[in-house]
Specification:
This protein has twelve helices and no strands. With 202 residues, the chain is mainly α.
């Protein structure tokens, strides 16, 4: 906290060791930042917005109820064009803990990814850079998934490092069902030095 919020550190440094810290920080940003994805999107139309893992499972902050923060603060002000970019990119990025895209951020990883996308779009980062960064975050949050995916691609004559990040983040590879399909094809590979991976809790 001191490094990123009380010093002159201006860039996020992502490592396996601090990746959980960034889930929590970006979760808070995605949850609290005012955005129509939260007020008009699937979070509002697919059930009670207060009962998803990203809201009902909120255990951070000074206020216990996540809806006290939900889409309340204009931390990141986007132009209409930027908002459309956020919506497009969010709709293309999945996470292996859920079957939903970031446009439906019903868990903490989804809400954290939304915050990351909003932040990068506000800084005028290119879509290619955003997808590349999003893949890095997903890879640290779910390392087993992407090691298995790289192995699966190699078995099928493809080089993981040359596959576009947007494809790797798609429903085919990064959704819960997409990863299950990959996992079944590669079998139960145990990669050395991996922990338990990403769970949707604080």
């Amino acid at each position: 906290m001191d490094k990123y919020f009380t010093s002159d550190q201006k860039q996020i440094e992502l490592t396996l060791e601090n990746s959980r810290f960034w889930v929590d920080v970006l979760w808070g940003l995605g949850l609290a930042n005012k955005n129509r994805i939260l007020t008009e999107g699937d979070m509002m139309t697919e059930g009670d917005a207060s009962n998803f893992a990203s809201t009902g499972g909120w255990t951070l902050g000074k206020l216990e109820n996540a809806m006290n923060y939900y889409s309340k603060y204009p931390y990141i002000n986007l132009s209409e064009k930027q908002q459309q970019t956020v919506e497009e990119i969010a709709g293309n990025i999945y996470r292996p803990c859920c079957g939903n895209s970031t446009a439906f951020p019903d868990c903490n990883h989804g809400m954290a990814m939304l915050g990351l996308i909003e932040l990068m779009v506000s800084q005028n980062k290119s879509p290619d850079e955003i997808y590349k960064t999003a893949l890095a975050f997903n890879t640290y949050w779910f390392p087993q998934t992407y090691l298995d995916t790289a192995y699966y691609l190699k078995q099928n004559g493809r080089d993981y490092s040359k596959v576009p990040p947007e494809e790797l983040l798609s429903e085919n590879f990064s959704s819960a069902m997409g990863y299950q399909n990959t996992s079944e094809k590669v079998g139960g590979v145990e990669w050395p030095a991996l922990g338990s991976g990403g769970s949707c809790g604080a």
